Amino acid sequence: METNRETWLNAVAAKLAPAFAERGAPLPPRIRIAIGFPSTGSRGKRIGECWDKTASHDGTFEILIRPDIDKPEDAAAILAHELCHAAAGLQDGHGKGFKKIARAIGLIGPMKSTTAGPEFIALSAPILAAAGPLPHARLDLAGLTTKPKKQSARMIKCTCGECGYVVRTSRKWIDEKGAPHCPEHGAMTAELPDDEEPDEIEQED
To answer: 61-65 and 48-51 as β-strands: parallel, antiparallel, unpaired?
Structure first.
């Protein structure tokens, strides 16, 4: 049967599990790993994420590796970082418990952005050799997609109560200078989000 990327990741995690147990940090029995976007989506610096079993309807820890990661050694190091969260408990964050496990498994650097140290490279090398190539191609996060286009400005509708004259301007100018004025009737009413949903238009950067 052909190996897919999720099968590959879960197999690597299973092979790493004994090393965690030997270091006094056994992994939870139920962990699911996949390539997918973390809660920050394609934005931000988060390249991996671990969700607690309490968030899953079947009591399983869920780990996501961002889809622009395609090198096996990088995926393994990110996976190990997230497995440390599962072993330490998510309540610990990047605290002492997490740090102890990460250091023991061979991860180095700042705890929020660990990388593979010599010990982890030696530990993971035979596992990655047995797993073979990661069956995944890097996803270009700047590529063409159906996701909504980033809106660079929110334009707020301002209306003259006398004649219905309409102007749209940004919240910045309303905050700094006040609502615009109708040429004939003076100050206009801005339909701010707190009052009702404002009209919005997309603008190019």
So the answer is: antiparallel
Region at 65 (left for phi over 0; alpha for psi -120 to 50; beta for the rest): beta
Give the separation between CA 15 and CA 18, rounded to whole angstroms.
7
Q: Rounded CA gap, 179 and 191, in Å?
A: 10
Q: 46, 38 in Cβ contact below 8 A? A: yes
Residue type, 201: I
Q: Who's near 94: CB < 8 A, 6+ residues apart? A: 111, 112
Q: Nearest to residue 56, comparing CAs of 33, 40, 72? A: 33
Query: Biggest alpha carbon distance in the chain?
Result: 80
- Contact 34/24 with Cβ under 8 angstroms? no
pLDDT in tens, 123-143: 999 999 999 999 999 999 888
pLDDT at 120 over 70: yes
Q: What is the DSSP letter of 90?
A: G
Beta bridge partners of 24: none
Q: Where are the domains of the chain?
A: 5-131, 150-205
pTM: 0.72
Decide if 30 contacts 61 (C-beta within 8 A): yes
Domain 5-131 is in which class?
A: alpha beta
The pLDDT value recorded for residue 149 is: 65
